[in-house]
Specification:
By secondary structure, the protein is an alpha+beta fold. It is 37% helix and 22% strand.
């Protein structure tokens, strides 16, 4: 039995911040790696962004350096990009475990907190653009939090 916990405090801004982090990871992962979107709440924000193509394109360029396509792709199993997320951003916030209505899957969240692993289902994934990674923004930390910066022509940050 899965325990669910209502968490009405999640906001659209939080979902978009996490979507931006997810897009950044999408571009920085190897081309053969799978990046399932398992948060229903964040996926709802992604769908809302898709309704505004110009804003979505700007969001993609800011966070991933290129356009990111939304692909319907159902699956279930381990989520293998978690370590890369934690390396750059720290532990996943609770919003990642929320369904479309903002209800947290407490069992999956507790398993993650205890083991650091996630095995769950998902309905979609980003399709990474092909080609040159020179436009991928780099991540830097400053006193105001995480910031993205364009990659320099030399490819270092």
């Amino acid at each position: 039995m899965t325990l669910l916990m209502e968490r009405p405090s999640f906001t659209e801004d939080e979902a978009l911040a996490e979507l931006g982090r997810f897009f950044h990871l999408t571009r920085s992962q190897p081309s053969n790696s799978e990046m399932p979107m398992f948060s229903g709440f964040i996926d709802v924000a992604w769908h809302r962004m898709l309704d505004h193509p110009e804003q979505y394109e700007a969001f993609c360029r800011t966070h991933a350096g290129a356009s990111i396509q939304h692909v319907e792709l159902a699956g279930e199993g381990p989520v293998n990009w978690i370590a890369a997320y934690e390396k750059q951003f720290g532990a996943l916030p609770d919003i990642w475990f929320a369904d479309a209505e903002g209800v947290v899957d407490q069992g999956t969240l507790d398993t993650y907190r205890y083991t650091g692993n996630i095995a769950t289902s998902w309905d979609c994934s980003p399709q990474k653009p092909d080609g040159d990674d020179s436009g991928v923004p780099t991540l830097r930390r400053d006193p105001d939090g995480l910031q993205y910066s364009p990659r320099s022509s030399g490819g270092s940050s």
